[in-house]
Amino acid sequence: MPIKKRGTGLTAVADAWQLADIDVSASYPIRPYTAVMAELAKRIANGTMKCEMVHGEGEHAQFSIAHGASMAGARATTGTSGVGVTYAFETYSPIAGSRCPIQALIGDRTLDPPGDFGSEHTDCLTLRDNGWIYGWAQDAQEALDNSLMYFRIGEDPEIMLPQIVAMDGYFVTHIAQDYEMPDQEQVDKFLPKFNPKFRLDVNNPVIMGPQIEPEMGPPLEWDRHVVMNKVKGKIVEVTEEFGKIFGRKYAPFVEEYMTEDADMVYVLQGAHAVTCRSAIKYLREAGYKIGMCRIRWFRPFPDEALAQILPKFKVAGVVDTGTSYGAPCGGGVLSTEVKAAMSEVPGKPIIQSFTSGLGGETITHEEFFAMAEMMKQTLAAGKIIQSGTWVNFNDYHEGASQINAAKTEAAPSK
Amino acid sequence: MAKVYKQVPFAAIVPSPQTENEGMVTGNWRFLRPVVDKGQCTECKTCYIYCPDACVNWAKDDGISFNLKYCKGCGICSNVCPVGAIARVPELDFDE
Questions:
Q1: Most buried of A90, A219, A341, B40, CB within 10 angstroms?
Q2: Nearest-CA neighbor of A244 among A179, A190, A296?
Q3: Shortest distance, CA B9 to any CA of chain A (angstroms)
Q4: Any idea what DSSP says for residue A23?
């Protein structure tokens, strides 16, 4: 029987890893990732979980340990946050290139300097081009469920790619929530034991990750490109099967909220979707025809799904909780990706970029209201009034008093 | 005309042991060459264990030698040698 639990996103992932019967976990402390390693250590010590835990001397070593373990045929996990993500950078492409489906948990956090412990997607977005499959969980339940789905997708013999279970630091990693821990029998049915075709084995020795000739490189990169596109079909298949076995149904790529008759839509990913939904309820009362599209996968990017969904709306406001200084159109990474995905789609909406929720700041109702107000004015004008808006900093309303007026107007019943 | 690429197995995973691969010759990367003093060498094979490119060979009658086709001149062998038997000599000191 599934068990109702109260815990954080990190205990939820520890539960997923326990149910997945992982063989090796490589650790190195950095907040907010640290709690999952403490949780695993506790479970191993008290005998509820059997797993080899190896402590690295840094994140680079940590990911290398997981890489080696996976090469030897282990179901291996690791994880990190913030500058830990960037310290391990050299390891990401080799892990994906040698097709080792390790799973990493990234409880995201802003990059230094200065040392800001707050949540931001910037750390995890820096490794988007390295061949890992990943997306953001909005709460503890989804973190647990994503972890199981990611193992299943990444370890598929046709895929064999590493995965990142990304989640907003603190909002998901540290806030206690209710979630359901599935039954071991259900998980065993969904996730068979990892059994790779190639592994380091003294009885059948192979070389993994050798030096190659330049002429051999492009075909290997082509393989990774092709397989990343194949992941999309696998996501649809696995999400559907997950729903049948565990009873929790997810939209495979994009979750829509109150979009039926919407003219305007927020496009975002991660935990701020929770606040966004409640802000939309107020905005609906105030007469704004607005909804939300939450992107569940960042790599592979769900461009086909967005191409089908977004033309229904007139304005799409992409909310970035990360930075990309000097990026085109003044937006962040997510808005750049959405604009690229929509570039050739007929009837696409006007896509507006917003940056908010940096450094662990909550995106408040008022900020969502301000964004809605700006989208409304874009809708009225039929064109972008300002390209790239940092909410509360440089929005086209002149002066804070006008922004505040817009917020108040947008939330009459609050 | 389309380029001809070399076909590679899945993730470039190849059968082992594979000490010679003509496609991987990197000898011209090196500017310092390891030279072993066979008088001092105790044949402890520490260099053999540490060489990251499997360039150290050992034969019963001939002792330690280096496969210079793959040696990148990193100097690890010289650093780990417990008796200081491996020198690093500039490539330009050699005719070949």
A1: A341
A2: A190
A3: 9
A4: S
Give the pLDDT band (50/70/90) at residue A215: confident
Q: Which residues of B touch A99 (CB under 8 A)?
A: 10-11
Strand pairing of A389-390 and A350-355? parallel
pLDDT per residue as tens digits for the range A62-84: 999 999 999 999 999 999 999 99
Q: Is the preceding peptide bond at A101 cis, omega within 30 degrees of 0?
A: no
> Does any CB of chain B come closer than 8 Å to the CB of residue A223?
yes
For residues A142 and A191, the answer to whether their CB atoms sit within 8 Å is: no
- Chain B residues bordering chain A (beta-carbon distance below 8 Å): 4-8, 10-18, 21, 23-24, 26
A383 pLDDT above the threshold of 60? yes
- Distance from first CA to last CA of chain A, Å, rounded? 41
Weakest-pLDDT range from A132-136, A201-205, B13-17: B13-17
Q: Where on the phi/psi map is residue A164: left (φ > 0), alpha (ψ -120 to 50), or beta?
A: beta
Residue A146 has φ and ψ, to the nearest 5°, of -60, -45
CB pair distance less than 8 Å for A218 and B11 = no
What are the residues facing A134 on neighbouring strands? A164, A299
SS3 content of chain A, % helix, strand, coil (to 5): 45, 15, 40
CA distance A224 to A122: 24
pLDDT, tens only, A299-358: 999 999 999 999 999 999 999 999 999 998 889 999 999 999 999 999 999 999 999 999
- Nearest chain B Cα to A157, which residue? B10
Q: What are phi and psi of A166, to 5 degrees?
A: -95, 145
Collect all residues of chain B within an 8 Å Cβ-Cβ radius of residue A216. Answer: 5-6, 8, 12, 23
Q: Which residues contact B61 (CB under 8 A, 6 or more apart)?
A: none
Q: Under a CB-based contact definition with an 8 Å cutoff, are residues A12 and A144 in contact? A: yes
pLDDT at B53 over 90: no
Which residues of chain B are within 8 Å of residue A205 when distances are taken between CB atoms? 15-17
% of chain B residues with pLDDT over 70: 95
